[in-house]
Amino acid sequence: MSLLEVKNLTVEFQTASGPFRAVDGVSLKVDEGEVLAIVGESGSGKSVSMLAAMGLLPWTAKVTADVLTFNGRDMQAMSDSDRRKIIGKDIAMIFQEPIASLNPCFTVGYQIEEVLRIHTDLSRKARRDRAIELFQSVGIPNPEERLGHFPHQMSGGQCQRVMIATALACNPKLLIADEPTTALDVTIQKQILDLLMKLQAEHGMGLIIITHDMGVVAETADRVIVQYKGRQIEEADVLSLFSAPKSVYTKALLSALPENATGERLPTITEKLTDAEIFAGAVR
Amino acid sequence: MLRFIFGRLAVLIPTFLGVSLIAFSFIRLLPGDPVMLMSGERVMSPERHAELMNQLGLDRPMYIQYFDYLAGLLTGDFGSSIVTKRPVLDDFLQLFPATLELSLCAIIVAVALGIPAGVFAAVKRGTWFDQSIMGVALVGYSMPIFWWGLLLIIFFSGYLGWTPVSGRISLMYFFPQVTGFMLIDSLISGQAGAFKSALTYLILPTIVLATIPLAVIARQTRSAMLEVLGEDYVRTARAKGLSPFRVVGVHALRNAMIPVITTIGLQVGVLLAGAILTETIFSWPGIGKWMVDSVFKRDYAVVQGGLMLIAAVIMIVNLVVDLLYGWVNPRIRH
Questions:
Q1: Residue B79 main-chain phi, psi, to 5 deg
Q2: Bigger pLDDT: A280 vs A251
Q3: What is the DSSP letter of B80?
Q4: Is the alpha carbon torsion for A267, A268, A273, A279 positive or negative?
Q5: In this predicted complex, what is the ipTM?
Q6: For chain A, which residues make up each domain, given as ranges?
């Protein structure tokens, strides 16, 4: 049984100019201990599909799926309060902008202990000890002192560590990392990725990394899903994707990487391929 | 934190000086002088007029009068009424509790109704609930106070007979002033029915005075809330599995309160200005009515002293708001 299973997920937003389909027929599976990367350009529906799976989209979004299960439980049939018992506890998510993702009005200690208060029976003292332990595990120095700090007193990398610590607070079975390194400096990116991979291995949890960075994919993922304009273009294990991409879009995407550049200008995908060609060449 | 407080206090000094200058000069810009108005219909010889002006010290050059006044202020002397000869500060302290009671009730009503209304309107954005709340708020904001007060009096007091027309408490009750707050004093007095009477007298003035602040607070809360609800940390809060009540009521509201607290602080000024009209409509014996009467009599000392004291109250409220602001928004504190 897969940890998370999604079949034919569709997300539509009601807009002034009629319904807009942001995700169209996406299917995926993640097992325990597996790292899945979802890769694609901006607007390819990577984040929206995961937010939809967690039930975090605003009410203006219409989400449908043939199958949407977590650990064998149907997330669509679940009441909102039952889903909230899973979200934050068994499925956790971290986001792109770590500083903006933390509430500026509360200390980071409050924000991490809040998850423990909601999802566990730990006493106040035990929650604090657990928070300190979590801060240590994500590499935040002076955890006792740091717990009393506000997000604006910390750097982006530190805030992302806080986000990761908060996400791991209840030992989740699945962690969804939505572009976890995009907003960070290159050196910090590497540290955060290494930390994520280390914690993933230690906890044996499933990890979905949403990214547009093929370097991140190569370094972390077991399996990769390529998305374009809300549709799934290709799914493959990471080695075959890089060595022998099957879809025309993935080939074009890889040839657009700076390290593969041959001429003065990088090739772009849209000048080579039309949408129809991309969708026709999808391999699933 | 102490530095923050002292910084704010230091700003008060030039503000206070500025207000004293404005208070002193504006009342003198009005045509007529207190001696002329005191004489009324009676004819007064120019000699007698000059003599009285000299007695009151009003014939001295303006800047000497101002510095004289300022020197008095520094020693806590706000002068005495030209008409009643009573010290301005004594009158103010006696009348201010009535205004404070009314203003406090009004701001409590405005905050207690305005914030939830704004929050619900934002959460239910675009629905009939949102549109009707904001429509009512716009009407409330646009309503002239004196007209709104008269409408309420005609309907509730005149037509339905539910509430009294004017005053603070029924003439049936009499008890000593302890705190100056009629609601509290009536409770202390232990007289049966006194508290209820004081409450019924307070209802209409409170509604009238609360209307504009209520509308402003509701609209400001809604727009602040809408902005905050789109923030990343609200998404994080939902991703933690928090209940919608906690997400909106704790994570979003705390941030949305930052601009709303500023608005509430600014409304205190509006409230005291509104109190002048409301007190006049309902014959509420507070400083608003006292100030209006003094302006008509050109009672310079009362008008300038009253203005200074009202300004002091507003400055204190603003200081409290600033401190609250620092408390709500840690980015200012740290």
A1: 85, 175
A2: A251
A3: B
A4: positive
A5: 0.89
A6: 2-90+172-281
Please tell me whether residues B193 and B63 are part of one structural domain: no
DSSP character string of B22-72: HHHHHHHHSSS-HHHHHHTTS---HHHHHHHHHHHTTTS-HHHHHHHHHHH
Question: Is residue B266 domain-shared with residue B197, that is, in the same domain?
Answer: yes
Chain A positions touching B241 (Cβ under 8 A) are 84-89, 115, 118-119
- Classify residue A283 by its DSSP letter: B
Q: Which of A85, A95, A150 sits opposite B232 (nearest CB)?
A: A95
Per-chain mean pLDDT for chain B: 86
Q: For chain B, how many structural domains are there in total?
A: 2
Lowest mean pLDDT among A139-148, A149-158, A197-206, A263-272: A263-272
Using DSSP's 3-state secondary structure scheme, residue B158 falls into helix
- Which residues in chain A touch residue B248, judged by CB atoms under 8 angstroms apart? none
For residues B105 and B116, give the distance between their C-alpha atoms in angstroms, rounded to a whole number: 17
Q: Does A2-90+172-281 carry CATH code 3.50.50.60? A: no
- Name the residue type at position B67: F
For residues A8 and A65, the answer to whether their CB atoms sit within 8 Å is yes
Give the burial string for A161-188 (b: 16+ CB within 10 Å, else e): bbbbbbbbbbebbbbbbbbbbebbeeeb
CATH of the domain at B148: 1.10.3720.10
Looking at the DSSP bridge assignments, the partners of residue A223 are A36, A237
The pTM assigned to this predicted structure is: 0.83
Q: Do A114 and B238 touch (CB under 8 A)?
A: no
**B277 and B303 in a common domain:** yes
User: In terms of Cα–Cα distance, which of B193, B230, B221, B204 is closest to B133?
Assistant: B221
Q: In terms of residue numbers, what domain contains B21?
A: 16-75
Q: A55: nearest CA in chain B?
A: B239
Tell me how far apart the alpha carbons of residues A51 and A63 are, in angstroms, rounded to a whole number: 10
Residue contact A152–B239, C-beta within 8 A: no
